[in-house]
């Protein structure tokens, strides 16, 4: 059996969309059929979304995307004002992006592992598997402890996940976990520096949850008991709804489905509940391998979302593809066509907490 060092020897390399001009390829795909033409139309819609400078762009992330090599694409979208807010699973933001920002890696797993052979042996070595990638469980425990430390440093009160993740970005900046100090770039750091809010509506369902549990246990079992930090998911919903109210024209770029998809779509309805007649999302793209047959949200179509008053039908496109194939084409197309050239970041963190944002 290979050693742990041998198994964790080939780090995942994150794709750099700046190095690959896909415009001629995507343009050619417009004259094809099936998913090729759908992907090309989605790329055109994303280009339109960015050229519409009134539009606030919301990126939704579900599935194991950072571990798969897409981190740098998302960082570049943030840093080039191609994204104004992010709604994500906690795993992408904490277990994967923040984890790598701390200096750790995801690793390529051999083909012999990706269907389950050897999982018992991997457990003995404290190696966790995400399909065909590996992550070091011992390093992940360090990430858990850092989130515990961040939690302990905060005043005890309820926080939105957006507020907590901003503190994670501040931690990276203060502790030299950034390119200027020889560290790595990351989504959390880029969003902190660009005032792009990140929401994780199910925040405790990730590595951060362990840090929060450890914090609350220590505080609640101390004598006397002490007040705790908690995550308020309703505050998340309220905050992102405020962004929709402040910026009526919005577009969605959704990778996967699940909670991030529903959360971002629902802000139109939430605004209506608050007495504001908000327009449906003007633009919407979803990259997914799910379909509608089992009734799950991840596979429900954007046309179906229109029946709920969430997504306009004019500029919407489903792309039935695995994300590592379709996203580089869609994002790369808009990037190399310089669709973002006239865009300025919406600075939405300022809208939510102006006093907390440095100049």
Compact summary:
The chain is of the alpha/beta class and 359 residues long.
Q: How would you describe this protein?
A:
The chain has 359 residues and is of the alpha/beta class. It has one domain: Deoxyhypusine synthase (Deoxyhypusine Synthase, 3-Layer(aba) Sandwich). It is built from 15 helices and eleven strands. It has helices spanning 4-7, 23-29, 34-51, 66-79, 90-101, 119-124, 137-153, 161-174, 187-194, 207-221, 233-246, 258-273, 302-307, 323-336, 348-352; strands at 56-61, 85-88, 107-108, 127-130, 133-136, 158-159, 198-199, 230-231, 250-255, 281-288, 311-320. The strands form three sheets. It has a six-stranded parallel sheet, sandwiched between helices. A three-stranded antiparallel sheet has the order 3-5-4. The longest helix has 18 residues, at 34-51. The chain is globular and about 60 Å long.
Task: Look at the structure and give the CATH class.
Answer: Alpha Beta
Largest sheet: 6 strands, parallel
CATH homologous superfamily - what is it? Deoxyhypusine synthase
Tell me how many strands there are: 11
First and last CA, distance: 54 Å
Radius of gyration (CA) equals 20 Å
Low-confidence stretches: none
CATH topology: Deoxyhypusine Synthase
Q: Please tell me the total number of domains.
A: 1
